[in-house]
Amino acid sequence: MTFGSNDGSLKIEDESTTLPRNEIKTNGVLKSPNKNTSILHPDLVIRSKEEIPEPEALGLKEELPGWHGYVEWEQYPERKKKVQAFMKKFDFPGNYQVLNLNCLLMTRYQPPEFQLVPLPKTNPILEGVRWKQYHYALGKATKDMPAESWLFVEKEKSPDMIHVLQFPYNGEPPRGRLVETAITRNEDHFVRNHGGIPEIDEDAYFFDVAGLVNTPKRITMNELKNESLFPRQSTTVTIQCSGTRRIEQIREYPGDGDELINAPWAEGAIGTAKWTGVSLKKVIKYCGGLKDPSAAPHLEFLGADTYFKKGEVYNYAVSVPWRKVKINEVLLAWEMNGEPLPKIHGFPLRAVVFGYIGARSCKWLTRINVISGPSMGPVQQKEYLYYNSQVGKHNATYSSGFSIQDMPVSSAIMSPLDMDQIIHEGTIKLRGWAYSGGGHWPVRVEVSGDGGSIWYEVPYQKLTEKYYHAWRLWEIDLPVDAEGWLELVVRCWDNSLNTQPTFVRSTWNWDLHVTSSCHRIKVFSINKSRPNTAARLKKFEDLGIPFLPITHPGEDDLEDEEKYLSEMENRGGRDPLE
Amino acid sequence: MTFGSNDGSLKIEDESTTLPRNEIKTNGVLKSPNKNTSILHPDLVIRSKEEIPEPEALGLKEELPGWHGYVEWEQYPERKKKVQAFMKKFDFPGNYQVLNLNCLLMTRYQPPEFQLVPLPKTNPILEGVRWKQYHYALGKATKDMPAESWLFVEKEKSPDMIHVLQFPYNGEPPRGRLVETAITRNEDHFVRNHGGIPEIDEDAYFFDVAGLVNTPKRITMNELKNESLFPRQSTTVTIQCSGTRRIEQIREYPGDGDELINAPWAEGAIGTAKWTGVSLKKVIKYCGGLKDPSAAPHLEFLGADTYFKKGEVYNYAVSVPWRKVKINEVLLAWEMNGEPLPKIHGFPLRAVVFGYIGARSCKWLTRINVISGPSMGPVQQKEYLYYNSQVGKHNATYSSGFSIQDMPVSSAIMSPLDMDQIIHEGTIKLRGWAYSGGGHWPVRVEVSGDGGSIWYEVPYQKLTEKYYHAWRLWEIDLPVDAEGWLELVVRCWDNSLNTQPTFVRSTWNWDLHVTSSCHRIKVFSINKSRPNTAARLKKFEDLGIPFLPITHPGEDDLEDEEKYLSEMENRGGRDPLE
């Protein structure tokens, strides 16, 4: 029985007990995939022997000419229902599998995103097999999205990005480079996508303004860029994913491996750009203003990308309150650092919401709905919720998590790296970022070389300029006398005197969001201003053997017998006198 | 060029860039190895193109008939020197490799014991490739020891032992079973060997008493078992490796991966047996007593096993002070729980030193030397040292570590296991062990369900009997209301009011010894006495989907739209009133 395409194969569960996969990883370096094969994961498993209709019967197609990769869902409730029923026929990896014999088995191939196991050392770290299969299952309108989206990663992002999730694409730059410039280079800016990357012709592009506005309108890029209609705004804004530093929570306690694949972000899911476009407030004004501004409405953004949640299909949808728009803190942007938006960042037009979680800065904008409360789309209602530490799979509800909008004060040490072994002469240089959302800014950055007992303040000369909505980079030469494993820590104080929780444990939450606790790294200190250390290093040098890594055997003896015996005599031997 | 045996192959480094290995692991289950091939790791690498003499030229042979696997080193200094020079010709795995082009490369095959990487999930966890090659390199007198020793593991130990190091063999039993009986079954007792296992006929066996005694003697088993010469002693004694719980130190900060392979012990490197034999004090008396007891001499034990350190070769040698012997706390034992000593535990005769680190309880005893100070053998002088946390590869000396003899107060939770997800109704049953060395005994055991803030005392009815030299097992039903990830902790107080350091960090040391900090495990608590939790569990049951593991996707929605909206109304919505 074949399905979807000639190269795909569909297995009936009781005919096969293993689920072959196409291998796409090659020792940390990902080869450019053949878009029809390796990246697709076509090995779908169906639940029973019932007949599956060909996906073409769903009648899915691209919505508009010039909008490749855009399937409209929200306007077609019947289409969504049909797809929901269709999706139920498959067992996607990570599901439990219900056999027709009423016997329960876990699916046979478990991708690492759903297991209580250490993250793989590959790049991409996770593949997103489940989401690739969602797209594959629905046939030609969506099945090539994983492969096509990957081509934009290769074209638009730095070749050494850390791919935390291959599809939907999530990636961050290497740590050290991110803090070299206060404005992040576009190719190094982190990407957190929730689906495939649509390819939209600017000439064919428009977005709709609808709902509780006095004059609903369809607006083209030509109109939006017309400065006689809309004044332009350029603002330096840091965007941060609420998953930044999630890896610290994952390492301590596994959390939600539920429907949404939570990318294992490190400290690089944050970036700063000068965004240029039009304040959303001006666009609402152009549409005759709100019907009832006093009702505190919300503005819902819809994207052209396809989003899956609990077996249902959606367009990406999020919202922000009018109050945020009114103070010109929501921009509709087409330029990033003076260049057209890269496709992967939302070309031709995206929202940029200052000081909020990055998820609200909707890409590939198709529609702005003015609505009476927060969006009921799953990204707004069911995701990016911040739970009490006792909430988990056993009791989580959507209403009991609070919705992450403004981001809290946070910071990270980007150099040195965790587990570095550092030979120094009494000081270690630390570099990193500090940020606070919601219009707050970092006032003070402090570092500790002893796990958080004694704190050193970063001199103001070593902090980059202040912005209302951007990070500050910092560096400091930390006095370090001690040797061995040390815990280096950073914390930031913002202008509202907020600072960071002490430990990862203090803020652990089921969905693994907002790791804003003091950032801690372990480094091994080798202080060569100490004579014994200098002498030992010299000995390795003389032997022509590298000293690092510290876990490698040295071949020489640590102390000769004569020296040992004289030292032991000085110490009064091993035993007491009497 | 072949070397040693027909199936071994020796590679010249510039002819080959990869180092093939024989695969011995099969998905966590170890097949009985063919003793001539798979377990041996014969792929030696030599340093240069110089001619290597056949190992037979070393003239190594077994010392005595009936003593298979025993090569005497300490009586033949010239033999030791010759072997030391011979060993220098090889690059053993883990070494840096010095090419004849004066260019430095790390060896091409790096076993995991020398890398800053997570431990493998295999069983054996580590293979001990380097030590296998030491034995292989020396030719027929030692080359089969890894394979032969493994046969004793298979014969004498439980099939489900955790093999922390295959050779020299180090193994511990599964956690839960270890605390089922106050006396450990022989097949479950942990094993920490430092070399191969000699096979000695009891009829051919004797040991020598030499050095600063008035009448040096050679004593056979027949004499020792003669109750008219020596009164018998039976004592219940816990033996503990100073590496117990080392895995906690490894996980937090890597330490010495130096010449000695440090086995990644968990909480099972401890066991209790009733040992029967003769007090060493009686044997010394039989030899006419000490020449000068007031000089506080030490008693050195030599074993038949071969030990390697920094490219030199030894017989295993350790020592204890006379003071310890004088109070009848050193037993020469031939029975373990009423049975003859298993080969792997030292048959026919071993020392059992009460309350000390297990390393002093020398197996396969060949000689007892009365000497004026602690043994200068490498195990006593250069190993089992406890360093300040700032000491490491950069500055460690043997004299600056203190020599571990008496063991401190310690404890462990053996059930549940770390990362368990527990469905309960308000209490969780905890079981474990508590021990204190040096003649101290556990008086109180306390557990915490909140990381160490509130402590519950184990009721005395739930502690096993007190011994001067053995552990106590304990269990408690810990009240647990909270849900989510909790940190369960245990600590013990001994009769001297000593208790345990708080964190692993508090006691981390370069050689990763004596992990005596409060033992902490993470468990995920699911309290079904809470109505919301009970309802969610019921929902999974109704759907016929297992609830555990918690990281597996549930397919159902967490809250329906109606409930969500009414809950949000109760909460006053997401935004403030004004």
Helical content of chain A (DSSP H or I, runs of 4+)? 10-25%
- Indicate the CATH architecture of the domain at 200-230 and 278-334 and 341-403 in chain A: Alpha-Beta Complex
Beta strand count of chain A: 31
Biggest interface, chains and residues, is: A-B, 85 and 85 residues
> Residue-averaged pLDDT of chain A, rounded?
88
- Name the overall outline of chain A: globular
| Oligomeric state of shown chains | homodimer
Category from helices, strands and their pairing of chain A: alpha+beta
According to CATH, the fold-level topology of the domain at 200-230 and 278-334 and 341-403 in chain A is Sulfite Oxidase, Chain A, domain 2
CATH superfamily of the domain at 200-230 and 278-334 and 341-403 in chain A: Oxidoreductase, molybdopterin-binding domain
Strand ordering within the main sheet of chain A: 13-12-21-16-17
Radius of gyration of chain A: 27 Å
Q: Between the first and last Cα atoms of chain A, what is the distance in angstroms? A: 87 Å
What report would you give on this structure?
Two copies of one chain form a homodimer. In chain A, strands 13-12-21-16-17 form a five-stranded mixed sheet. In chain A, strands 14, 15, 18, 19 and 20 form a five-stranded antiparallel sheet that branches. Among the domains of chain A are: 200-230 and 278-334 and 341-403, Oxidoreductase, molybdopterin-binding domain (Sulfite Oxidase, Chain A, domain 2); 410-527, Immunoglobulin-like, CATH 2.60.40.650; 531-570, no CATH class. The longest helix of chain A has 13 residues, at 531-543. In chain A, strand 18 (330-336) and strand 19 (339-340) form a beta hairpin. Residues 1-37 and 97-108 of chain A have low confidence and may be disordered. The radius of gyration of chain A is 27 Å and the shape is globular. Chain A is an alpha+beta fold and 578 residues long. Chains A, B: Its cofactor is Mo-molybdopterin. Chains A, B: It holds the Pfam family Mo-co_dimer.
